[in-house]
């Protein structure tokens, strides 16, 4: 088991990572510190409801807390809406959720984002514990305090920065994932290697065939490294005023694809993988990176079963993608800001004055 601390001045919280974590005394003790004598509202989606056993119930009762209810909603990005959050508000009000209640977000990235936004805004803020059940949520969305929902106009346009009390990264949940969902998380893992850690990227290249098999020590080491990298960035820039923006590598392109396809054609990881390809192509086209950066990245993503291009059946154009990118929350002063690699392990945020190269690289990845 590994423990990573996210330090934000006087505030800090731990990320616990391990196999069969919910049965570990360390995890139970950590949760007890936040739940003892309080009540817990567990928010989950229908995927988790179908597979979740007694471990979560056991760890909550062991923490000397009472579960006052389970708030379930349909799985998928289509549920990441204000309407879903309103349902959570009204259910919580009817159950008497108060400021001493702690929300447990039990699920993948959508659950963490929705439950986190609910916790951040109900009664102007109640306690939150993240219990991620997918690789993507574990290495990315459960860490750092970004919570929120989508609008028809774009992804994650409504939200807040709201840090959890604790993150319980139970690696055993990963064995319940379909192969496509596991690949989705691996896209975010690759992202960390490209933007921050050339050694991690090299490990991923060497272990590309082993990663989907969830070999215990390799999985724990890779997940812990990703969480440590993100924790360091979040500690430096908790509200994304500066360097934290590099974590959005591939996401501006990817979010546009998700929005234009109605959040149904691509998983988040698939869209980000294609977006990273577009970003790497743009870096090469602008002379900011050597061609080998894009080649190595494409090769690794392909080995992991992730797409490098938009399939021909997806009806999008370079112009439609670019327009969707301008609705992204990272646009500043009407100017497109993109994260582009310089080499494997280092990136820069670049303001794109001329959009023609952007259109060119988008077109190069369509069909």
Q: What's the level 1 CATH class of the largest domain?
A: Alpha Beta
Distance between the termini: 44 Å
Q: What is the residue-averaged pLDDT? A: 95
Please count the helical segments: 14
Number of folding domains? 2
Strand neighbour order, sheet with most strands: 1-2-9-6-5-3-4
Low-confidence stretches: none
What letter string, H or E per element, gives the SSE order?
A: EEHEHHEHEHEHEEEHHHHHHHEEH
CATH architectural name of the largest domain: 3-Layer(aba) Sandwich
Helical content band: 40-55%
Taken from the alpha-carbon principal axes, the silhouette is globular
Briefly summarize what is shown.
The protein is α/β, with parallel strands linked by helices and 367 residues long. The chain has 14 helices and eleven strands. The mean pLDDT is 95.
List strands and helices in order, with pairings.
Elements: E1 2-8, E2 11-18, H1 25-35, E3 39-45, H2 46-51, H3 55-62, E4 66-73, H4 82-95, E5 102-107, H5 109-121, E6 127-132, H6 135-141, E7 146-151, E8 154-161, E9 166-170, H7 179-196, H8 198-206, H9 216-236, H10 251-260, H11 268-285, H12 291-303, H13 318-325, E10 336-343, E11 346-352, H14 356-364
Parallel strand pairs: 2-9, 3-4, 3-5, 5-6, 6-9
Antiparallel strand pairs: 1-2, 7-8, 10-11
Helix pairs in contact: 4-5, 5-6, 6-7, 6-9, 7-8, 7-9, 7-11, 10-11, 10-13, 11-12, 11-14, 13-14
């Amino acid at each position: 088991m590994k423990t990573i601390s996210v330090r934000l001045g006087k505030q800090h919280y731990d990320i616990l990572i391990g196999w069969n974590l919910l049965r570990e005394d360390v995890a139970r003790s950590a949760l007890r510190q936040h739940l003892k004598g309080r009540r817990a509202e567990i928010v989950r989606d229908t995927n988790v409801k179908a597979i979740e056993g007694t471990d979560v119930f056991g760890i909550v009762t062991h923490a000397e807390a009472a579960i006052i209810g389970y708030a379930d909603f349909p799985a998928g990005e289509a549920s990441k809406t204000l309407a879903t959050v309103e349902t959570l508000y009204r259910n919580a009000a009817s159950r008497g959720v108060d400021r001493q209640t702690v929300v447990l977000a039990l699920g993948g990235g959508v659950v963490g984002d929705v439950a986190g936004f609910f916790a951040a805004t109900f009664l102007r803020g109640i306690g939150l514990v993240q219990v991620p059940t997918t690789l993507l949520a574990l290495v990315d969305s459960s860490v750092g305090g970004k919570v929120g929902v989508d609008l028809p106009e774009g992804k994650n346009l409504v939200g807040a920065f709201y840090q959890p009390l604790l993150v319980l990264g139970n690696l055993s949940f990963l064995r319940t994932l379909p192969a496509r969902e596991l690949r989705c998380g691996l896209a975010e893992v690759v992202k960390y290697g490209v933007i921050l850690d050339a050694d991690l990227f090299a490990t991923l290249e060497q272990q590309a065939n082993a990663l989907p098999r969830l070999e215990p020590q390799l999985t724990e080491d890779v997940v812990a490294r990703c969480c440590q990298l993100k924790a360091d960035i979040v500690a430096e820039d908790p509200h994304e005023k500066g360097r934290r923006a590099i974590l959005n590598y591939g996401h501006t392109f990817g979010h546009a694809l998700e929005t234009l396809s109605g959040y149904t054609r691509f998983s988040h990881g698939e869209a980000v993988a294609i977006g990273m390809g577009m970003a790497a192509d743009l870096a090469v086209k602008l002379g900011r990176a050597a061609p080998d950066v894009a080649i190595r990245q494409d090769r690794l993503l392909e080995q992991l079963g992730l797409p490098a291009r938009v399939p021909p059946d997806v009806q999008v154009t370079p112009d439609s993608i670019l327009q969707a990118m301008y609705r992204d929350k990272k646009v500043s002063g009407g100017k497109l800001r993109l994260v582009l690699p310089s080499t494997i392990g280092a990136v820069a945020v670049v303001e794109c004055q001329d959009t023609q190269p952007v259109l060119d690289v988008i077109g190069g990845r369509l069909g």
